[in-house]
Amino acid sequence: MKIQFCGASRIVTGSCYHLTINDKEYLVDCGMFQGKKETTRLNYEPFLFDPKKITALFLTHAHIDHSGLIPKLYKGGFRGKIYATKPTIDLCRIMLLDSAHIQEMDTEHENRRRLRLGLPTRKPLYTQLEATQCMKLFSTIRYDSLKKIDDNVTVRYRDAGHILGSSIIQLFANDKGTEKKIVFSGDLGQWNVPIVRNPTYINEADYLFIESTYGDRLHEDVKEREDELLDAINSVVEKEGKLLIPSFAIERTQELLYSFKKLILQKRFPKGIKIFLDSPLAIKATEIFKKHKEVYDQETLYKFKNPFEFPQLKYTLSTEESIKLNDCKKPCIIIAGSGMMNAGRIRHHLKHGLWDERNTVLIVGYQAEGTLGRIILDGVKNVKMMGMEIRVGAEIRKINSFSAHADYEDILEWLSGFEKSPKRVFIVHGEEKSAKSLKKKIAKVGLKNSYIPHIGDVIEI
Predict the structure, then answer these.
(1) Do 177 and 283 belong together in one domain?
(2) Beta pairing partners, 459
(3) Are the beta carbons of 196 and 307 closer than 8 angstroms?
(4) Domain count within the chain
(5) Residues with Cβ < 8 Å from 409, sequence gap 6 or more?
(6) pLDDT of residue 402
(7) Is the domain of 348 the same as that of 436?
(8) Based on the domain organization, do 378 and 279 belong to the same domain?
(9) How far is residue 170's CA from residue 168's CA, in Å, rounded to a whole number?
(10) Is 22 exposed, middle or buried (0-12, 13-18, 19+ CB in 10 A)?
(11) For residue 301, what pLDDT band results from cuts at 50, 70 and 90?
(12) Is residue 212 domain-shared with residue 255, that is, in the same domain?
């Protein structure tokens, strides 16, 4: 059998692996490339395979860098089944439609520019119709149960502890009568974080594909996240400013709401401070979180009846409500997408507040290379956005413990579950520096036969 790396190789985004087993072809993930311009351009390149020939797609979770090119795959003629957990399917239904809306809007904006220059217009990467149509191909798979796909492939999905419905995929391939056990970690979560469960240990694999997003870093202690969050809140209250939190719609936003409610119940949260969830996508995602209590961890099930509702919280769905937040004179907290600040309502709040020393921008998630979030985090004095140059006057803070990704100690802990070392380990889903760092660290615990692939590499196993 052959496996080709079609993305997330020496970069974080674009997760996609093309498997050829006997006479059939399969995919694990079909994610969008995000970050620098040269990276995002890869979304418009032809797939390294023929979509029409793909029998099935195994999806680890709903994040766009794992699922975001599924409508493009459908547009290219794919009509096989897409296997995912029920929470992942529900989240993809809103995520892919939102992504398609962004594709259409960005293309419309670009085409106006091209017409002025006398250049030919472009079509969007995919449309909202294609995003809706591809949802018909999804098929639910339960955690921990074996599912025989055909004579070539049997799979088992295990909880990855990353976001709601996220999975580690155990793929058992019948390669000309020989069984090969292949494990795709997907994105692993941290241990002992709220809402989601801990990652599931896997005890055996012949071949392992392991993520390395934070392969060179350690997060702060999860126990300290509420203290750091409270310190940021108190700082803007003292300055009479706003706390602007760019946040991913899935998991990060819900973890923030969980922490806010915890502070309120502990009577530590400042009185009179309003929290505005200013993201239609995050509001829809939160409704899905409310629906899937069956995958909550024990603490969330028994500590809170509903961690996503409290008097201080206001959902701002409409554009008019969002615009009014610019006129808010009292200290407040605004959570808005997108998490890397490359799109969404957070950019409008930054336009109106990034220059103001009274405000704080609190970064609570990974910022890919080339994104506005990474540029601001790297300490620039001015940024260009929305057709203007804006001074970075606001305080910039970061809380690493809110990351949904495992750090290298979490990864090493998860790897300790293997009773016998895999024959070979492929280090993926990380920038080159992180991947190389993890390669050294896992070698020290006995996993010496590891490889960091490039996009396009093909291995035969």
Answers:
(1) no
(2) 3
(3) no
(4) 2
(5) 218
(6) 84
(7) no
(8) yes
(9) 7
(10) middle
(11) confident
(12) no
